[in-house]
Design goal:
By secondary structure, this protein is α/β, with parallel strands linked by helices. Helices cover 38% and strands 24% of the residues. It has helices spanning 39-42, 46-55, 81-95, 108-118, 147-159, 167-170, 178-191, 196-206, 233-242, 263-275, 298-305, 307-327, 347-365, 388-399, 409-414; strands spanning 8-12, 15-23, 28-32, 60-64, 100-105, 123-129, 220-225, 246-251, 284-295, 331-335, 340-344, 369-381, 384-386, 405-408, 420-428, 437-445. It has an eight-stranded mixed sheet with strand order 1-2-4-3-5-6-7-8, with helices on both faces. Strands 9, 10, 11, 12, 13, 14, 15 and 16 form an eight-stranded mixed sheet that branches. Helix 3 (81-95) crosses helix 4. The longest helix has 21 residues, at 307-327. The two termini are 37 Å apart.
């Protein structure tokens, strides 16, 4: 897991700029983020943590909060690309980085362009993702957004600042996840005030770095997702085709949020571009007891309740899962939409947590869960979990009846003497597995 250094401050004139670093090695990568950021919140989402964990495998990351947002000084006057470039230089000087690769994300792309154009001695390479050179429409730029439309968009965003619903535009593939929604809302509220969006909106309306692009002579990788609705692919393509030494890569997906979607495809391109090679992802193989839960009849319940009420149910389920899993020394790895994936260091604790969670669901959620558990070898990659052990646990959960905690024979055999009792459910063919598996339902805990 990525360990970020304590937050420190660089001084860009009279403005204090919060920064941090992570990782090591000979390659320094300066990250310039998008329209809102907060160093202490942005890295807490497990998806983001996995993204940065992969990056630190081949580089030292240098990240900072732009002036006016996050932990940097607020209410500091003009918000311009020139100021952002100055702030970036102050951070580079503070960490002793002479020449770096710059990774510009969304709005960070034009700022990276400004830095590379005005200080080529400090930029060795550049990566831009989901980026643009200009947003507003102009006589020589018909592909842009009419200024009135752009202003109306920012006004709506400002009126509903902190509303988690806007994540559906930035990251539609994960917008249903309560953990993601909570993180997004906290990021907006903590990263920038509603009034602070005015300065950003004004810059977006007038921003135009097109004249700078032909002057940049550093190798550049421009990535974008084919279905991005926040920054349209044609805007990123225009950047790539105006840069003399750029490579353009279109990725599949609809997410604008950098850490959503297929991270492997994204980061494989970034790593091979910056290093000339592709490392083997760091992983650890561990024996773990894996639990999957699923809400019975979730589609029907969601249709009856409506989006808002159903989201509240999902959020309650997350809270209950964290509570019961934590009681038995387990860890919730992630939401799976209508359930969770959790891991335990002992099979008996996994079964007891599952039984507690199953028993709590009807009273606290108004519906039943089906739960599956398997103990086997798994692959831990950052904060996530993969491998055949996870696959088997998912198949066991899919075979469970409503209100049932179903376990593999491996789990049953490992908890002999624990006081847990099981009912034999016979051999089952589990999808994707060549041999049948004998499954058992947890029916009692004699220690209670």
């Amino acid at each position: 897991m990525t360990v970020w250094a304590p937050i420190r401050y660089a001084h860009s004139g009279e403005v204090a700029i919060a920064y941090t670093t992570a990782g090591g090695g000979d390659l320094d990568v300066l990250v310039i983020g998008g329209f809102v950021g907060h160093l202490e919140i942005s890295t807490t989402l497990p998806l983001a943590a996995r993204f940065w964990d992969r990056m630190t495998g081949f580089s030292r990351l240098i990240a900072f909060d732009k002036r006016g947002m996050g932990l940097s000084d607020r209410d500091v006057g003009e918000y311009t690309l020139e100021n952002i470039a100055d702030d970036a230089l102050a951070v580079l000087d503070a960490v002793g980085a002479k020449r770096v690769a710059v990774f510009g994300i969304s709005e960070g792309g034009p700022a990276a362009t400004m830095l590379a154009a005005t200080h080529p001695d400090r930029v060795a390479a550049m990566v831009q993702y989901g980026t643009y050179a200009r947003l507003s429409q102009a006589p020589d730029y018909p592909d842009g957004i009419p200024s009135g439309t752009l202003r109306a968009f920012w006004e709506r965003l400002r009126e509903n600042w902190g509303d988690p619903g806007s994540i559906s535009l930035w990251a539609p593939s994960i917008a249903h996840d309560p953990e993601v929604r909570d993180w997004w809302a906290r990021m907006l509220r903590s990263g920038l005030s509603p009034s602070g969006t005015r300065a950003i909106g004004e810059m977006y309306e007038h921003l135009d770095v097109r004249p700078l692009l032909p002057t940049i002579r550093v190798p550049t990788l421009v990535l974008y997702r084919s279905g991005d609705k926040v920054v349209l692919p044609r805007w990123s393509r225009a950047v790539a085709r105006a840069l003399p030494e750029a490579r353009e890569v279109e990725l599949a997906g609809t997410d604008h949020l950098f850490c959503a979607g297929d991270q492997k495809a994204f980061l494989d391109k970034v790593e091979s571009f910056l290093t000339g090679r592709l490392s083997v992802p760091r992983s650890d193989r561990v024996l773990a007891s894996v639990m999957f839960t699923d809400m019975v009849g979730s589609t029907e319940h969601a249709a009856q309740m409506g989006d808002q009420q159903w989201r509240a149910v999902l959020e309650r389920h997350q809270r209950i899962a964290h509570r019961e899993v934590g009681r038995y020394r387990g860890r919730v790895i992630k939401s799976t939409g209508d359930g969770v994936l959790a891991v335990f260091d002992g099979p008996a604790r996994a079964v007891r947590a599952a039984m507690s969670l199953r028993d709590a669901a009807p009273a606290e959620l108004g519906l039943e869960l089906r739960i599956g558990i398997h103990t086997g070898e798994c692959e831990a990659i950052g904060d996530d979990l993969g491998g055949i052990g996870v696959h088997i646990a998912a198949r066991v959960e899919a075979a469970a009846e409503p209100g049932e905690v179903l376990v593999s024979s491996t789990v049953k055999d490992l908890v002999v003497g624990s006081g847990l009792r099981f009912a034999d459910r016979g051999e089952r063919r589990l999808k994707g597995l060549p041999e049948p598996w004998r499954l058992h339902a947890a029916v009692a805990d004699e220690t209670r």
